[in-house]
Write a structure and sequence with these properties.
With about 350 residues, the chain is mainly β. It contains 2 helices and 20 strands. It has helices at about 15-25, 310-315, and strands at about 5, 10-15, 35-40, 50-55, 60-70, 80-85, 95, 105-115, 125-130, 140-145, 155-160, 180-190, 225-235, 245-250, 250-255, 265-275, 285-295, 300-310, 320-325, 330-340. It binds calcium ion.
């Protein structure tokens, strides 16, 4: 049974009520497996491996507003607080606010976005630290909020008493550690941006629909760019054919697995990029390389490459196409790209 008090629309979690929350959520519950998509890849029976992908279902908007009456950790009777936030079950590095030097009642008003994969089990963890120039930073306190307390697209303010530990009920933890105020909004991805249109055939088809442009909703706001490199056909190396694909976007580089001795690799791998704005003027570069281990060295060659303009993806929500590879005789690559927004 979840217990929490509301005071003028503010959810106030206190030491007494926190145990109830954590009992209810099973303390940092792992992501439930129903949302995990698994499939087996085959490549002529020679290569097969499992790929597991947790499908993102929305974005958690977090505003770290302020903290009040924080502990004094420094010699001068003050602290230099900052907040670290992270979602349970997520391996991304934690996000953090700026450091407010010599301030026990800091005001941040800083905003963050986190990808949500399972709002029924995930928990946001907030930790307040005292920055120090030298040595480890002291933790001033921490708290959690289970996302299941949030209604989609509704902003809630939480005032949280800071605690010492991740585990509750510590009788020695009697110290008043102050509190932190945050605002949370869970924005699920739009259902219709996941809807599958019939895959377009035709190589490098320029056909595009701008119907959604009139709605104006897909052209602003944060979202998730998902790139699925399905496979390639007729890729032909001069010296070897052990193809893997490299996806480059805004300085990030991601690679599929390398498959051995095939001209028709099937990777079926998905890569995700969380963006603050729609990638209206961006391109994504996909290159197919082949690699062979030589005697004491690796020999690499490019089997073809391609730049895909993302404007159409933003307008249509999705593309699913085969493209001719440049610098390749007959090589083609099958790519699916989705842009999913929360607006
Ligand atoms: Ca300090």
């Amino acid at each position: 049974m979840l217990k929490f008090k509301t005071e003028g629309g503010v959810y106030r979690l206190t030491k007494g009520t926190t145990q109830g929350f954590l009992d209810a959520i099973g303390n940092m519950a792992p992501l439930n497996d129903n949302n995990t998509k698994k499939w087996r890849q085959h490549d002529g029976g020679k290569n097969s491996h499992r790929v597991a992908i947790n499908k993102p279902v929305g974005i958690l908007h977090v505003k770290v507003v302020r903290a009040h009456k924080l502990l004094k950790m420094d010699f001068l009777g003050t602290s230099d607080p900052y907040v670290k936030l992270s979602l349970s079950g997520e391996s991304f590095p934690a996000k953090r606010t700026t450091i407010k030097k010599r301030n026990l009642n800091p005001v941040w008003n800083e905003k963050f976005k986190l990808i949500v994969k399972d709002p029924s089990s995930q928990v946001i963890q907030l930790e307040v630290f005292d920055w120090d120039k030298v040595g480890a930073h002291d933790r001033l306190g921490m708290q959690f909020v289970p996302l299941k307390l949030l209604k989609p697209n509704e902003t809630k303010e939480f005032k949280l008493d800071l605690l010492k530990h991740t585990f509750m009920g510590d009788p020695t933890d009697k110290k008043q550690r102050g509190n932190i105020v945050i605002e949370l909004t869970y924005a699920p991805f739009r259902e219709d941006t996941f809807k599958v249109e019939s895959p377009r055939s035709g190589l490098g088809s320029k056909e595009s629909s701008f119907e959604r442009l009139s709605e104006g909703v897909v052209l602003s706001g944060a979202g998730l760019l998902s790139v699925i490199v399905q496979g390639a056909e007729d890729v032909d190396g001069v010296r070897h054919n052990n193809p893997y694909a490299v996806v480059r976007f805004r300085g990030e580089k991601k690679k599929t697995k390398k498959l051995k001795k095939t001209r028709n690799p099937l990777w079926n791998e998905e890569f995700q990029f969380m963006l603050e704005e729609p990638p209206l003027n961006d391109k994504i570069r996909i290159q197919v390389n082949s690699r062979r281990k030589g005697i004491g060295f690796y020999s690499k060659e490019c089997l073809g490459k391609l730049d895909i303009n993302l404007t159409d993806v933003v307008h249509n929500g999705r593309i699913n196409q085969k493209y001719h590879l440049l610098n390749s005789k007959n090589g083609k690559i099958h790519v699916e790209i989705k842009w999913t927004t929360t607006c």
